[in-house]
Amino acid sequence: MVDKKSELAAKSSSAVSRPDRIQNPGFEPEHKRVTDESPARDSGAERGISVLFVVSALLSVAAFALNFIFPIVPGDLGTTRLNNMFVGLAIAAGLLALGVGAVHWAKSLMHGHDLVEERHGTRGSDETRGRAVEIFQEANKESGWTRRRVLRNSLIGALVAFPIPSIALFRDLAPANRPEDVLGFTSWKKGVRLTHDPGGVPIKASEVTIGSAFHVIPENILEMTEGFLDEKAKAAVLLMRLPLAELNEAEDRKSWSYDGIVAYSKICTHVGCPVALYEQQTHHLLCPCHQSQFDVSNHCAVIFGPAARPLPQLPITVDAEGYLVAQSDFLEPVGPSYWERAR
Fold first, then answer.
1. What secondary structure letter does DSSP report for 313?
2. What DSSP assignment string belongs to 128-191?
3. Triad 326, 331, 333: Cα angle to 5°
4. Which of 75, 121, 236, 325 sits at 20 to 30 Å (Cα–Cα) from 64?
């Protein structure tokens, strides 16, 4: 049995090692391109590719300019459509010209012959490393990167101009005023009732049971006709009721709650996502975006995740009719912690 296995292994080894079983077909003959055989075609292709790169650079600059030629007017969807259409078309055309030029360069001007690279260890010998340097030099020579200056410079110009539209686009994401001015004050004021979101029905303290959570907005923003969504986003609040024995409050903030009912900003202090997942057994709030967790029983202190500070608390009480009302606005800015927070 052992001899038979040895015989089979020997036959298998012999079959693998015999070079006449598998012939190396080699490479197919290289097909010359028109740019390889005609210097005039080569120069024409170089000029055409340079034109594409220049067009890409001009379109990138045009996208930046179109953002101001067709500005977005707040509340006017028509201007938003025009801005998006013209800026988007300019950026897309610039990318297309850049991509077509790069592909045309590779297919028309760079050498297209086949090559084989043998596998080797992580670090080659000095001869191999020297050969690697030679390959880079050959690639530079074959691509014409150093020799074709017009082509190279036009590509560099296109790549430099390409990010220009993003300057205007990202600038539009910033608020017109200072962030601390925008986020430092909300629609909450003394005596403003807490109402259900989105119905706007005022909430009585007796309606808030232990373990429940309400999405709340101030009653006064329902009368707004302009900027309603912005004000609602800043003033959104989560209202919860905890057993008094499980609510740990600092002495100077005990008056901010009412009979175990607490109200906290719904805007996560990490990057501003809505914190809306409440676990009534642990009294934890979870932000679904980046998994920051806040402990409602301890002034919404951060217990997990990237948030840098607790959720701002809204001081509340009840009015003469038993409805929950705000004692004041938030005493600190709402929202992400990366804004400057001076007030």
1. B
2. HHHHHHHHHHHHHHHHTTTT-HHHHHHHHHHHHHTTHHHHHHHHTTS-SS-HHHHHS--S--TT
3. 115
4. 75
Do 239 and 166 share a domain, yes or no?
no
Per-residue pLDDT tens over the stretch 200-239: 899 999 999 998 889 999 988 877 767 788 888 888 999 9
If you write DSSP's letter for every residue of 314-342 in order, what string do you get? PPEEE-TTSBEEESSS-SS--S-TTS---
Sign of CA dihedral 161, 166, 167, 168: positive
* Same domain (yes/no): 151, 45: yes
Question: What is the domain-level CATH number for residue 241?
Answer: 2.102.10.10
Residue 331 lies in a domain: no
| 263 and 201 within one domain | yes
Residue 48 region by backbone torsions, left for phi larger than 0, else alpha for psi between -120 and 50, else beta: alpha
Sort strands 293-295 and 301-304 into parallel, antiparallel or unpaired: antiparallel
Structural domain contains residue 57: yes
Confidence (pTM):
0.52
Q: How far apart are CA 239 and CA 249, in angstroms?
A: 16
Q: What are phi and psi of 88, to 5 degrees?
A: -65, -40
Q: Residue 192: which domain range?
A: 179-326
The answer to whether residue 58 sits within a structural domain is: yes
